[in-house]
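Design a sequence for this backbone.
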């Protein structure tokens, strides 16, 4: 996981914003998260991912995808589907998922 944001890409592209509050029971979570990061990189059209966690426990992950097909391929990937189910059963108190098509994107890096 990088401490730099994912670069701005030429639109259009898609993003999935996954916002979570976790339960106390986190057995296996880190290993599964690492595996998901590994798997998503095999999806053609995957562009990158940003993560943030507040001290109060709110987690935000933003996945960037070149097109809707890439995002669908990730959403329906078998191991990812299993992890989604385990998340609902064990790791998440609540979550939201927002999917959006990016129409404008730019970035800045101090020289």
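Sequence:
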């Amino acid at each position: 996981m990088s401490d730099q944001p994912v670069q701005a890409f030429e639109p259009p592209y898609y993003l999935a914003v996954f916002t979570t509050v976790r339960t106390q029971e986190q057995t296996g979570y880190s290993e599964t998260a690492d595996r998901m990061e590994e798997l998503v990189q095999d999806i053609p059209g995957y562009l990158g991912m940003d993560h943030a966690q507040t001290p109060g426990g709110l987690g935000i992950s933003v996945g960037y995808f070149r097109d809707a097909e890439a995002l669908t391929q990730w959403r329906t990937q078998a191991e990812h589907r299993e992890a989604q189910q385990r998340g609902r059963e064990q790791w998440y108190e609540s979550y939201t998922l927002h999917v959006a098509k990016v129409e404008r994107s730019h970035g800045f890096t101090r020289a």
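The chain is about 30% helix and 35% strand.
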